[in-house]
Specification:
128 residues, alpha+beta, Arc Repressor Mutant, 4 helices, elongated
């Protein structure tokens, strides 16, 4: 997916500021234009991951031409970032892992103590 971003020009003393208009509260910065765009991709991926962890919807990208009508961004630079569609994929996938038996025993005991399956417990650990 491609999301429009808007970049506040930087200077020798200030960084380039970046806002992702379709993702409220998603912003970033960088010392160079390239770094600002790269950091915006990282921030947007984290924003999406957080939204999904909370069970919230991910907005579709707006049309760049519509966003450009907003006067508060009149002197800003427009660009587009690409979000890997795999970030939006919540399908269950079976995996095979290898652990020492003593570690597996600890994992199973910890999962049982909180009323989880092994898979559920691993997922919860990863989401924390």
């Amino acid at each position: 997916m491609r999301y429009p971003i808007v970049i506040e020009p930087g200077s020798n003393k200030t960084a380039f500021g970046v806002v992702v208009p379709d993702m409220p509260g998603c912003f970033s910065a960088g010392d160079t234009l390239e770094e600002a765009i790269s950091n915006a991709e990282i921030a947007a991926a984290a924003w999406i991951d957080t939204q999904m962890d909370r069970g919230l919807n991910i907005p579709q990208p707006s049309e760049l031409s519509e966003l450009q009508k907003d006067p508060k961004y009149a002197k800003w630079i427009w660009a587009v970032i690409t979000i890997d569609p795999a970030l939006l994929d919540d399908r269950i996938e079976r995996v095979n892992i290898t652990l020492p038996r003593r570690v597996l025993k600890r994992l199973d005991d910890a999962a049982k103590a909180v009323g989880e399956t092994r898979s559920g417990y691993i997922a919860q650990l990863a989401l924390k």
